[in-house]
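Lay summary. Proteins are chains of building blocks that fold into shapes, and those shapes determine what they do. In this project we predict the shape from the chain. Here is one chain we studied, written as its sequence of building blocks.
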Amino acid sequence: MKKTLLILFTLLIAIDFAYSQLAIRRRIATPKPADSLDIAFYAPKHGLRAGTMVFGINMGVWVFDRYIRKADFAYINLNTIKDNIKHGFVWDNDAMGTNMFMHPYHGNLYYNSARSNGYNYWQSGLFAFGGSFMWEMFMENEYPSTNDIIATPIGGMALGEVTYRMSDLILDDRKTGWSRFGLEVAAFVVSPMRGLTRIINGDAWRRRSTSGKQFGVPDVSIEVSAGIRTLELKDEILDKGMGLATEINIEYGDRFDVKDTKPYDYFSIEANLNWQAEQPILGQVNIIGRLMAKELVNNRKHYLSLGLYQHFDYYDSDTISAVSAKVPYKFCTPASVGGGLIYKRNLKRNWAIDGYAYLNAILLGGALSDYYKVDERIYNLASGYSSKLNFNFTYKDRFSITTIYELYHLFTWKGYSKDIDWNHADPKTLNAQGDKSRAILHAVGIRLDARLRKQLYLTGTFMNYTRDTKYKYYDNVFSNTSEGRIMLTYKY
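And here is the predicted shape, written in a compact code that computers can read:
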């Protein structure tokens, strides 16, 4: 938990610094492509260095776990390695934050070890898989984890490309002195392995005639919100909580431009951080990254494109108060990909409408369980599909209405025996996704933005989360949670 808080804190500092830089740039510069000199300078691949960095990450983490934390799982030898190879993969029982966010974040370090050494999106994903496989098979005395070998590289690719491109916005090889030092530090925090690579090869202090940006100056919009959040679990006894909330929304690239696109030339990210008693600080992360797309319609009135998109979704909450010991919701999809339609239409009298529709396959997901409580895990691992539908109505940048609809249908197919003796069950070898079940989850909401002055808006958001879980061996459960936010939003 302390590691999670430290990562979030440092990322917030760096992102805040990046926001200030981006705000200045957007006022004085228009989007432009990357300089050919910059592309050529950073194009060479350095496979040995990338592989050494991946290996070094694992060895460094293992040394910390073994000799400083003295964690039980870090006591490895040839026998533990043989056991791992002989037994094979199992579903582990770590907490959702560990499995579905921290492991993808770790995968992002593997990924950026290669990305910052000349490799592209797909090639860097192979390095992320290799680093994850090495850790699972050799670096722990616990059996290798099925869910980790999926979430770490695939989720790591999403987080990795986002952080790589965000660091690219910050860096500027033309700068010198304290200004350059501040940019390098901020970029290092956002993408540590890119920062380390720049230190190793000397780029961190090398002054060049061009900026070094691999993606030029893209079209970026940023929203930072802060305000009050209320959360209500609609159970037999209404359980309510109130606290402070912050929200960050970033849209990178032009969603309506699909000419000669590369993976993540367009992406959006939303992150909700809560300062509320008993609630996790990281409450929500949504990433949608475009992998490829094609225009279907583009005229004065209508725009429509079809594309392939990667999704990373993470929703977390905890017991609101002592009134009810129930957790409102937990669900996530660190490994999800599917097709998407992007639509836009200009209406009369300064109104415009745009939106998207996605249908995704979920290779790995998770949803809160009412019965499975083993070690740190209180959720079922699953696979399935999801769909998302969004419409945004705007009037002259003065007022907007956004509708949100997300559906997740998750199937937990590898359960445990109905007659299991929990008193003698070994969590390390149980090897169950959770309760045999299927869960239907909805996240439905509406957001209103009204401009107060210049770039400052009053924002109101209402969300409703429902979970309908059908269990094979237990009673079915329906859960309903509402969330409201009133915030001030500054739009860059």
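What the prediction tells us: The longest strand covers residues 351-368.
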